UniProtKB/TrEMBL annotation:
Belongs to the short-chain dehydrogenases/reductases (SDR) family. Keywords: Oxidoreductase. It comes from Flavilitoribacter nigricans (strain ATCC 23147 / DSM 23189 / NBRC 102662 / NCIMB 1420 / SS-2). Residues 6-192 form the Ketoreductase domain. One of its GO terms (molecular function) is oxidoreductase activity. Transmembrane segments: none annotated. Pfam families: adh_short. This is 3-hydroxyacyl-CoA dehydrogenase.
């Protein structure tokens, strides 16, 4: 799919991986609807592309909020061609910790946001995409989910997070198989340790230590590198039903 003059919806687009992807798409001539529960300042979001970016505040878990966001996107930009789902949370808690057993409410919140929320967004957006006019090879849309290497090597304290991201990995192929009949591709990126707001509160020494665990390059990943892979997935129509690790070769230890 060509990016220029297409419309993309990005959840979690207010910061980190989602924001970098939104800025990249706008720079390549796309119209971008940025959906987030909290939106950044206009200057950070637009990056000189004011007419190409539509900020939308919504919770991916709320069907009515997503439908309203989709309605506004279509009314402003026209049909939606791509969805990049980056919204997610990553609290850590041990199943049996010093303060007691893992909160069931916290576990459910992580699953509801990262897994159920992603599926909610996909099902409602794909419903709109199926009405698009087919392009080359019959393509009507492309969807990218954001998992994590924790889906494969979840660490101590990541039971909820790893379960939610593992669900996205497992969902990739069946969604791709089902949506293939209407020309919608589904792929997933599984990032390693990236420089995102989730790590922003760590001391510099701690971030450097995490980066040193990466075989090569021995540093934290940059959001722009995630955006570059998203761009390639969008443009390469043979990529479908697959999960791509973007991690510098890291395999996470227990902690």
């Amino acid at each position: 799919m060509e990016i220029k003059n297409k419309t993309f919806l990005i959840s979690g687009g207010g910061s980190g991986l989602g924001l970098a992807t939104a800025q990249m798409l706008a720079q390549y001539g796309a119209r971008v609807a940025v959906l987030d529960i909290r939106l950044p300042a206009d200057s950070e979001l637009n990056a000189g592309q004011e007419s190409m970016v539509l900020p939308l505040q919504a919770d991916v878990r709320r069907e009515e909020q997503i439908e309203a966001a989709l309605d506004k996107t279509v009314a402003t930009f026209g049909p939606i061609h791509g969805l990049i789902s980056c919204a997610g949370i990553g609290p850590a808690a041990r199943t049996l910790g010093r303060e007691g057993v893992h909160s069931l409410e916290l576990f459910q919140k992580v699953i509801d946001t990262n897994l159920v929320g992603t599926f909610n967004l996909i099902r409602l957006t794909a419903n709109r995409m199926q009405e698009n006019a087919p392009e080359a090879d019959g393509e009507r849309g492309t969807i990218i989910m954001t998992a994590s290497v924790a889906a494969y090597e979840g660490q101590i304290g990541q039971a909820a997070y790893a379960a939610s991201k593992g669900g996205l990995v497992s969902m990739t192929l069946p969604l791709a198989r089902e949506l293939a009949r209407i020309g919608i591709r589904v792929n997933t990126i599984a990032p390693g340790i990236f420089e995102t707001p989730l790590l922003a509160n760590l001391p510099d020494e701690a971030r450097a230590s995490l980066g040193a665990q990466v075989p090569f390059p021995s540093r934290l990943g940059q959001a722009e590198e995630f955006a570059a892979l998203a761009r390639h997935i969008i443009e390469n129509r043979m990529l479908n039903g697959t999960v791509i690790r973007l991690d510098g070769g890291i395999r996470m230890g227990p902690k």
